[in-house]
Amino acid sequence: SDCYDSNVTASSQNKTSGQRCECPFGYSGDPYIAGSCTAIPRFYGETIRSKKWALVGVLSSLGSIILLFGLWWLYKVVRKRMIKKRKEKFFKQHGGLLLQQRLSSGEVSVDRAILFSLKDLERATDNFNINRVLGKGGQGTVYKGMLVDGRTVAVKKFKVQGKVEEFINEFVILSQINHRNVVKLLGCCLETEIPLLVYEFIPNGNLFQYLHDQNEDLPMTWDMRLRIATEIAGALFYLHSVASQPIYHRDIKSTNILLDEKYRAKVADFGTSRIVSIEATHLTTVVQGTFGYLDPEYFHTSQFTEKSDVYSFGVVLAELLTGRKPISLVSSEEAKNLASYFALSMEEDSLFEIIDKRVAKKGEKEHIMGVANLAYRCLELNGKKRPTMKEVTLELERIRGPDKKFNAQQNHEEIELARIEDYQPYSTSNTFPTLSRGSPSSEVMPVLTSDNW
To answer: CA triplet 340, 345, 350: central angle to 5 degrees?
Structure first.
């Protein structure tokens, strides 16, 4: 027992001293009798056991933490490898190696066709944020993005169909097109299941919007219409005759004519376009196109020629002249075809009854008749009687006049247009129904599979 001195006071006059004793911790008994303090049964065993389990608990917790950390690290490593292998698989599947060879061989300028990484495009589009969507179509979604160098771009997700070699070959050729009135393809990303295409960003919507949606801030003047028509014609002439290999657009319509910051025309949407050999006179393909713009001869024969693009351009010319839509609903059961209606008006000498009032008011009658006659020739049912796009371009430039392109009035107009800050986004809705029929005798891979912007 443990004893210590203690003063015991019985009364104020009687004071004695003694000791107070206590059994040690873990013992019990009479502390004043020697040997009476005995150990409490199981006390020390339980204490040691509790300390042991406490130690086991600490070690187990630490082990669990280490195990979880190890499993997390292993998951990250395995996931990273799987993502890498998946990217490599898609890259090879979509012809990435072949495209890289073309780029490294100098066949394509790297400045014109860039292979973007998925990480770069995710950063540019804020991980393809829904707020960055410019529009959606049947074949893809377009996102607005900003690259690290500050360039604003349009990133499009689409599906590849057909042989990879053909897609890459046509992508390479399209990437070399450098015309001011053709939307520029900057590059692609092949690291995803659905390949991504990157285009220059065109801010001011499309021609259809400005022709058919009332816009008091920017009325479509005759001079603007004539300039835009000339620019579209020049772009098609380039595709048909100047490019290294002829390209048939196959879907010319006002929704596929975009307008840049100065409201200059940019031909877009090469989703159904075809590369053809120089000696080829036509393509036999599945009939594809948009009602109101589709060449009737192509519809019946499934043979697409450069004159089929000319027909579609003729419909756009008729739109510019009349301000009417290619297909107008007369009633719930009847629709009016602009091409037929326009041709009939020309034959009956009643053109100015359907001409847009803004055109009739501002345009010279001689110029209006010149463009109308050109549109009528483009809409010939017999493709052989239609002019080539070169002839169309030269005729439109003649109508505009030799000094129109550079006169001070037009320059002033373009500068003023560039100052307009309010603009409309890309239109990606299919304004008109598309069609597809028949089976091709020989199918050719599209240059780029995409929808309306």
So the answer is: 170
